[in-house]
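We store sequence, tokenised fold; for instance:
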Amino acid sequence: MRVMSDATTVKLAEWFAAQLGVDHVAIEDFAGVPAGHSAETLRLTLVWNDGAPQREEVVLRVRPQPPSLLEPYDLRKQYEIMRALESTPVRAPRVLWYEETGELLGREFLVMACAPGDVFERHIPDELTNDPARVRRMSEELVDELAAIHAVNPATLGFLGDGRDFIAEQIAFWGGEMRRVQRGPVPALETLLAELEARVPAPSDVVTLVHGDAKPGNFAFVGSELTATFDWEMSFLGDPMADVAYAQVTWELPGMFTTLPSSLSIDELVTRYEEKSGIATHDLAWHRSFQRYKLGIIMLIASMLFDSGESDDPRFSMMGRVVPLYTVPAFADLGLDNVEDQGAVMARPERLAMLEGS
């Protein structure tokens, strides 16, 4: 968690006062928010008086220190997407302000209202295990939100392009990321990319907003009601099958409440999605394979950031071990035999030894 100096806190409070148009703002209850592996997320309470006492809990999303997992990191894009979604049924957090200069915190940040609800990832509490009806409804809410995201008028998101070359752009980007970070051969990932390129499906007739990271852990709930959809950093306009396939892949990851027997199954997810969205699913096996490839590349990037010394995050040190958990089923999605040789996906022993020593 970021440690903020008194001087920085004062400057930040003055900045908030300017945004609110008041003379003074006090910052209370400053805390870090447990989140993913990219942007730093901070929660704090603003207190001011504009003729009557006011207080609001807000969340700062701070651009990660480069190089990060997702470069180039576009925080403004996230801000613009969430702002565009305010007039839609999509339950994105309400964004308040964007600070692009980096003068206050050393990096740009956006500010959003603190959405109510709990996020469930990496751990399934007893309150869910013991309430199958709630879990069932939560999983239905996830699918309904995905349909709502795909119902957003793409014309309101013109700053994202037209989405027509989405698949080609995604293949080029993630293939480029693999080549950018690899320090040696990675046979499984390289073979998988070649097979995906050889089997690219026909362009979709439907272009929608694609969330890009629609895993169960990116949604908040109050009871069984979905209250917020987070992490728009990988969002684009493109083929909605990317999101459906990604949801299928992440639905069964360890620690997700969607692994519980009372949740919608993978097949029920697809059926409900088609009913709610009116969009027929297609080529899901290819899209699942590609989404697994994408996740494998993200794990490779994390591992290589640690290997190179650009990150000391101990979580990144073991990400190479996760790569085959994505490549093995990705080959199966395509009906191919697995390529067992992962190659140079792990941080080198001498680098790992440095972590153990510290």
